[in-house]
Every structure is written in structure tokens, then in C-alpha cells.
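Project channel, design review

CF: Before we commit to the Nakamurella panacisegetis constructs, I'd like one complete example in the thread so the newer folks can see what an input/output pair looks like. Taking Helix-turn-helix domain-containing protein.
RD: sounds good, go ahead.
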Amino acid sequence: MTDTRGILHPQRAFEHFQLHRFPAGETLGPYVDRFWCVSWDLPPGESFEQPVLAHPVVNVVVEPGRGAVYGPTSRLGRQHLSGAGWAVAAMFRPGAARPFLDAALREWVDRVVPIDRLGAAGAGLADRISQVPGSSDEVDRSRADLLRSFMAGLAPSAVPADVQDAVAASELIASDRTLCRVEDLVARTGIETRSLQRLFRECVGFPPKRVIRRYRLLEAAEAASEGRPVAWADVARSLGFSDQAHLTRDFTAAFGVSPARYAGG
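CF: and here is what came back for Helix-turn-helix domain-containing protein:
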């Protein structure tokens, strides 16, 4: 597992739960980035709270007794774990969920709706997935396979052109840490600013500037999690912040603590 962006303090987190990832498959590849499965079994009386600043994407999540569609989140989330449990999810590629949903992504920000809003077959999906027997890694794979089958039945055969553009632009932001301004994105994609803003409102949920800032902050948090001394002024400059104070303000607003405090655990 190489990409832990969004999972705060990943080394500590993986002491409390297991995370497995599985590919989207050919049918869903244009739309879904990955399937992920998380499971935990904590001792009686022990609990753990995992903060997450998610990628700006939609997740379809199934856990015991329920399934739901989670729109892109605008703020830090916290998952409380106790006892034993599991969840399996399809994580969409940024910009790719629009054909599966009933409204523009700007209307899905911070929304959670039952999974059967995607299709009638979703009504019993949580029960079917919950009935997968066993507790090994293969169980996670089987759970992901059932969710993949459901999602594949919803996927359009042809990817809409606006979705292709939104995915390409969003994944360029996600993969290139030197891309720090909307002007840079306009130059790289060839899409003029107003069209880019409309595209992101429709297919991503957030404006391009906010998506850029989210990924750069995730990278700053990842740098802080590596356990080595961090030259924050250099990190700020490399990620497009005007100075260290600018990075500190935005980081603290997103994560609730300063970069230095986060790095200290």
C-alpha cells in the first residue's frame, strides 16, 4: 500500500485496523479508483477514533446492516471503532461519479443517502455481503466482488465526455504536486477557466482551487507522517503556499492542529 493520503497518522491507524484494496476491474475502471475493505477486532472496552480527510470523491460504503452513498466531504471526518466490525467500499475516481447520481456533484457535498438510491438491487446488498462467511483476507475479496458486481450493473457503457474531462483534470491535480494554481490547470488541460469551474461544480463538487488545495494539504500531512524532521518552509514552497504561515493556517483549518503538532503525533 503506497498511497495513505487522507488517513491521518497511518502508522498508528494500522495498529488498530486492517485495510485491503482491490482493483476496480475492466467495466468499472473508467469510474472507480479502487475497492477498499477495512476490518477491526478490538479488545473489550477498547475503542479507537480515526480521523480522515478524504479525497474529494464519492464513496459507496456497505457495512453490517446498511449501505450508503457518501458524497464528497468538505471537512475532517472521524470514524469511531470499537468491538469487531468491517466495511467495504467503492471509491470513485475524482469527477467520475456523476453518471451514477441524480444531481450535480455540488449538490452531493457532505450528503449521505441509502445505497438503494443508486438502484433497486442495493436494497438487499448489505445483507448479502454480511452473509459472506469467514474472517480471512479472502472474505474481504469476496465482499468487494459482491459490491463490484452491483456497481458494474449501474455503469454506463460509454463514459460521457464531460466525465472524461473532469477525471483527467482531477487526477492531474492529484498526481502532480507541482500543480498549485488554477492557471496551471487551465494551461495543462486546455480548458478555459469558466468552463473548468462549471465542469468541477457538475462532476467533482468543489471548485478547482479547492481540489488543488485539498490534495496539497494531504501531501503536507503525508510528509509530516514520515517520522523525519520536516522543513516546513520548504514544504510550503514546494506545495504552492505563499509562505510557511500560509501553510500553517490552511493546515490547521483542515486538520485541527498545526503541521508541527501533527508531526509530533
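RD: helpful, thanks. The chain is about 40% helix and 20% strand.
CF: The first strand starts at residue 18 and ends at 22.
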